[in-house]
Design brief:
CATH architecture of the domain at 8-47: 2-Layer Sandwich
Strand order of the largest sheet: 1-2
CATH superfamily of the domain at 8-47: Classic Zinc Finger
Distance between the termini: 42 Å
Shape: extended
Mean pLDDT: 87
CATH class of the domain at 8-47: Alpha Beta
Strand content: 5-15%
Helix content: 25-40%
Largest sheet: 2 strands, antiparallel
Order of helices and strands: HEEHEEHEEHEE
Number of strands: 8
Low-confidence stretches: none
Number of helices: 4
Radius of gyration: 19 Å
Structural class: alpha+beta
């Protein structure tokens, strides 16, 4: 892929993307991970551990990234903006879903028939 790394350990870690190697397997649900850090973060889902607490409202999260996204509710920050409309979002995934409105792509398709919808609330 052309990527280079200063440390051999970083290269070894990156190569797992290409080989599909996922040596860390969750005993609770069977999901596998390429990196130990991702595996440890996943384990918090099963343990119920939520060490990251919002100082504004007290809500707790199992991942620091989830806390940071949540805190945007309090700050009003919406860093992901639509180029076509005056609309912005707290998460990149929300923006990507919104952008599909402009392309006409449907987000949710029934598995039993050909009906599809932009909304998950048919």
């Amino acid at each position: 892929c052309g990527k280079s790394f200063r440390q051999s350990s970083a290269l070894k870690s990156h190569l797992k993307i290409h080989t599909g190697e996922k040596p860390y397997k969750c005993k609770e649900c069977g999901k596998s991970f390429a990196h130990c850090s991702s595996f440890r973060r996943h384990q918090k889902i099963h343990s119920g551990e939520k060490p990251y607490r919002c100082k504004d409202c007290g809500r707790s999260f199992n991942q620091i990234g989830h806390l940071r996204t949540h805190q945007m509710i309090h700050t009003g920050e919406r860093p992901h903006s639509c180029k076509d409309r005056d609309k912005s979002f707290t998460r990149c995934s929300y923006l990507r879903a919104h952008e599909k409105i402009h392309t006409g792509e449907k987000l949710h398709k029934c598995e039993d028939c050909d009906v599809s919808s932009e909304s998950s609330h048919w």
